[in-house]
Amino acid sequence: MGSEPPVNQGGFFMRSTPLLRFKNIHTQMTATMKIEIEDVDSCNKKITLDIPYQDYRKKVDAQYAIVGQQINIPGFRKGKVPKSVIENRFGPEVKRDVLTQIISESITRAIEEKGIKAVTPPSLLKVEAEEGTDIKVSASVEVIPDFTINDYSRIELYAKINKVTEKEVDEVIAEYRLRGAKNFPVTGRPTQDKDIIKIDFKAEVDGQALTDMESNDFTLQVGAQGSLAAFNEGVLGMQIGEERDIPIDYAADYGNKAIAGKTVSYHVTLKEIQAQELPEVNDEFAQNLKEKYKTVDEMKQKTRQDLEDYEKKQARKAARKQLAEKITEMNPIHIPEGLVREQIGFMAKEVKKKQAQAHDHKHTEDCGHDHGVEETSVSLEDEKTYRTSAIKILQEELLISQLADDFKIEVSEEELDQEINGFMALLGGGNPQKIKQEWRKNGSLDRLRSRMRREKTLDQLLGKIQLKEEMIDRQ
Prior knowledge:
- By secondary structure, the chain is an alpha+beta fold.
- The chain has helices at about 55-70, 85-115, 165-180, 230-235, 285-290, 295-330, 335-360, 380-405, 415-425, 430-440, 445-460; strands at about 35-40, 45-50, 125-130, 135-140, 155-160, 180-185, 195-205, 210, 215-220, 245-250, 265-275, 465-470.
- The longest helix is centred in the middle third of the chain and has 35 residues, at about 295-330.
- It is elongated, with a radius of gyration of 35 Å.
């Protein structure tokens, strides 16, 4: 049968030939194939099989018939070339490709018949192929190891729930008041804290104008969260029409390298002042909210209840995380090396992607830089940085997946729809079914289903351990 087929240590592949377009030959394998499975270790199995020579021969003859319909040889009509001529001219090439194909198909069939949970493509170890005899093949394959989850019923965890204070209730009501605030123009006085002002500004550093840091009719609220304290102080006390230079010192590690470690001088012109008029907190105010409370007392009680429910959910979320870590700690299962390297590669790629995105945010939109993250192989540095975390993540996912199977956890279409509807509500509306179809195409729906199945599993598991609630003061 000629030489052995080409072997790739990451699995085998089909050789392509420039002379003929070979087709996959799906002839029925009639003879019984002998299959032996050997456990090399918990994550690797060796497959040894004997492919009946008659199955191989049938595929070769079928391929000769196809070749005979394709080729043109002087002295013979197309499709009437004798088999002996075809075999003499194309025999080695046909046999080599058929051998590669039948080995691939046979190993796949062996994996399926024996119920092997392969996690990476099989790798050929040895092929013995002599004319007229059965083909002996051995291959290795990585598998998910068999494991038993240890008793978890005695696990003790505390769900630490933050106490809700009057101050937190008042802060929510203050947000309600801001939603109903009315702005009105102010003249005859300088700017004050919380005023909404409209300004023109230009910036320069070391005497050089920064054209990408200037704006007209720019609106901001003095003292707003996230604004520069030095800039807020600089605009306080300005009168409409007044111009003022406000110096701002930027830290050496500031994201924009053009101004990092330097002093930027902003030339500001105040054009307009508006003050906010906040509604009085009374029953009428409570009734006009979208929540439609009847009284102020009801508004406060419901606000407190909502905050307490949120804190309980956060505590339960933290408990789920602790439980997943505890289960993993109790069951240190072995992970196939192929899966580990795949996870390391994914983690390294995600970090590089986030770094590229952060780099982009530090530039203006018109810089024209392309910071796409290219596919890269796993480096020694990646191995050192991510291996321990990658193994832990995979152990956790395999264990929770097994528990989900044990508990018969499923995520229904109704539950998916409810989750998507909630997501769309947060975005302010949209077409949930359209989003669902898009997510189905790009794989996001499968990821959402997996996340929900994981959470349902851990929620059920919380009911099977010793979980105690503890009220704590917010740290």
